[in-house]
Design brief:
about 200 residues, alpha+beta, two-stranded antiparallel ribbon, 5 strands
Amino acid sequence: MAITAKMVSALRSRTGAGIMDCKKALAETDGDMDKAIQKLREQGLKASEVKGGRATEEGLIVSYIHPGNRVGTLVELNCETDFVARTEQFQGLAKEIAMQVAAAKPRYVSAAEVPAEELASEKAILRTQAVQEGKPEHIAERIVEGRIAKYYSETCLLQQPYIRDTDKTIEDLVKDAIAQLGENIVVKRFVLYVLGQ
């Protein structure tokens, strides 16, 4: 199938990928737009893994105040260059993450930040609950691992379902931005303020 400039342009507007990447993905999928999008996403995830080790010393600190002025957040989102930090897409990502913090009230950026004592305590509680539900010990361990994943999705920002699309996590959102912008992006830290707390 002949790949037209119009097809490449349509794919580029939907994914934000480069012209040559779009053309190659369309050629490899015989012009199937959905398969090309999937292919670009897979390549983007691979690219984000490669870029994950690069230094991120530029970026933004973004604030969000929820209507009613009772909840506010500050988020530091880092990238590699000030050029990317000034892009509309990067600034939009930072605002979305700040709104996510206000809405979902995470306690940590990632699972790696959860203190070991807190994690051990949570696992002990979950194990006791599973045993009290009558589950055998070897099954209880698997249940604990599943419930710990749920605990992470409630308390860790990157593991939380995105408030605008629960099929994606915040980590997925960041990886998509890495694939589109071509730089490593890191949620460095956040602060959540709730009136009276």
